[in-house]
Amino acid sequence: MLCLSFTLLLALLLGVSFGDALPRDAMKKRCSLSKYQFLAPPELKAVQKMKEQFEGIMLLSDRKCHSRLFHRKWNPVELSVSERVMLVEAELDLATTMLQLPADAPFANTRQRPLAFLTQAREDLRGCMAPETPSDQPSRKLRHWLQRLQTAKETETTGCLEASAILHIFQVLNDLRCAALREQCT
Fold first, then answer.
1. What distances in angstroms separate CA 162 from CA 11, 48, 57, 123, 152, one per listed residue?
2. Which N-terminal stretch is annotated as signal sequence (predicted)?
3. Domains detected in the chain
4. CB-based contact 147:90 (threshold 8 Å)
5. Which residues contact 176 (CB under 8 A, 6 or more apart)?
6. Which of 73, 113, 134, 165 could form a disulfide with 98 if both were Cys (CB 3.0 to 4.6 A apart)?
7. Would you tell me how many other CB atoms lie within 10 Å of the CB of residue 4?
8. pLDDT, tens digit, 9 for 90 and up, residues 112-127
9. Which of 103-112, 134-143, 150-159 has the lowest average pLDDT?
10. C-beta separation of 68 from 152 below 8 A
11. What is the pTM of this model?
């Protein structure tokens, strides 16, 4: 009986010690992107409406770009799962930043739902990204694209970046879906 009590006490102490050794936030935070595998029709409809309204606005303005950020000679399925997450996080960061820019009232209202959705997706992705270690270098393809994105942010006009992000929003959503699937997708 004493041996059984001692064993239970030892197990309890080890359990408490082990629980304190792990960060509580790490135990709570789970990576779940499954809700992005198939996007809800209301979200897709809101994004489509925003894109169409923006295309109408674009006809009235001059938003020429020198870089073609979303024209890649490779497909995100060629990247590892962790690299797809990094790619989509960068794309979502650009898209949400551009959607937060001041705009006329009708467009500002139209983009609120897509902005909220994309912001939530970006936060969910950030919860899935492993902390970088010095040995974790993205592939040459991804590294080159991330460098092009950074250069575009420094050299292109805000109008160009906004147009690129919004006009290619469905490409970003497809990349998000591929990252959520965590396997090959088309």
1. 57, 16, 12, 20, 11
2. 1-21
3. 43-61+76-130+139-184 (1.20.1250.60)
4. no
5. 33, 36, 88, 92, 121, 125
6. 165
7. 8
8. 999 999 999 999 988 8
9. 134-143
10. no
11. 0.78
